[in-house]
Amino acid sequence: MPRRYFPTAFATFAALTTLITAQDTVRLDPGDPATKASATSAATLKPATQENVIIYKEPGRYGGWPANQGLWQWGDELVAGFTATYYKETTTDHRIDRTKPSHRVQARSLDGGKTWKVEPDQPYSDRKNEPKAVPLKEPLDFTAPDFALMFRFGSLHTGPSWIYTTHDRCKTWQGPFTFAVEGVDKICTRTDLIVLGKQDCLMFGSCGKASDNKEGRVFCARTTDGGLTWKLQNYIGEEPPPGGFAIMPSSVRTKGGALLTTIRRGKPEYCIELWRSDDLGKTWTKVNDVTSNIGGNPPATVLLPDGRLCVTYGFRRKPSGMRARISSDEGKTWTPEVILRDDGFDGDLGYPRSLVRPDGRILTVYYFNGPRGEDRAIEGTFWTPPVATDR
């Protein structure tokens, strides 16, 4: 039986075969000086325990962007989604061969993440032959034991977005289904959900900005009829100025009922923000910045069994790798950075998804590179926070 709480384990997945499009070419933010600067943090921490695993690695291939896909668990059965394309040495952002096809694939583990097997593409993996999206006809049961939902989008800036569902632990998917939120235009969202009941669910997404029709602004919407209709709860923060963006929320609900949402910000901040709502998303207050100057990477946020908040992210400065910060007071204060990895070849890495295993360990899945430049893989880290993490 899977956990019935889906802040980040309920994540995006699409198994489709396409040429690389705007939604895949996720920026490295090369204009950010942080991508070239060296880290100068005065204090860092190490995990109490740590184990790295390989999920996908093939010669000449490039695995990328789990945050755009998904990570699910049902006991010891885990499914991770990601993009598999082809490596090419370039001087631009991602070292990919844009003349070759890209595949959205998934890997499954039946032993709690020790070993993984890549599964074939789903029947709808060719976007050119993908059926036209239709409305949902029957309400969804968000609490069904083997159910998962993912969002997929077209244009990175203007959408639209669609829903896909699975009722058998990601073995088969249904969709695409149309998705709309009353009062919100240009929805281009990944998946971030908090289930409130059988047919009651909050989603946190991104949409294009009114000022320049570019990504993005974050909003919260709610369905109480099993996904047939969605209504806007509110936007989270003001619309960023032209050239800036707020995207890729990752959200949890505390035992007390508060919503905590971390958001990736673009220039000039290049930070991860934390926002709080105590009325199920109707009003929002910024708590603080979790971290800044990381070179542009989304957060993966989970609640630990003891109630602490954990945010993991890719660190695209030097030394590049994976890092995390932990809060014991719902984000008011944060530990120094926990260094999960600092052995990346360059800053083309990160985009994590995280979940908490039944034994209390965190599993963070991300794309990584090194020790050689052509090594571009999907990897995972099982880890536990440092024993003393209070500031």
From TrEMBL:
Alphabetized, the UniProt keywords read:
Signal
Q: Which organism is it from?
A: Brevifollis gellanilyticus
- Coiled coil ranges: none
Q: Is Signal among this UniProt entry's keywords? A: yes
Q: Which Gene3D superfamilies match?
A: 2.120.10.10
User: Region annotation Disordered: residue ranges?
Assistant: 97-132
Q: Where is the composition biased (Basic and acidic residues)?
A: 114-131
Q: What is this protein called?
A: Sialidase domain-containing protein
The chain positions of domain Sialidase read 207-362
Signal peptide per UniProt? 1-22
List the InterPro entries hit by this protein, alphabetically.
Sialidase, Sialidase_sf
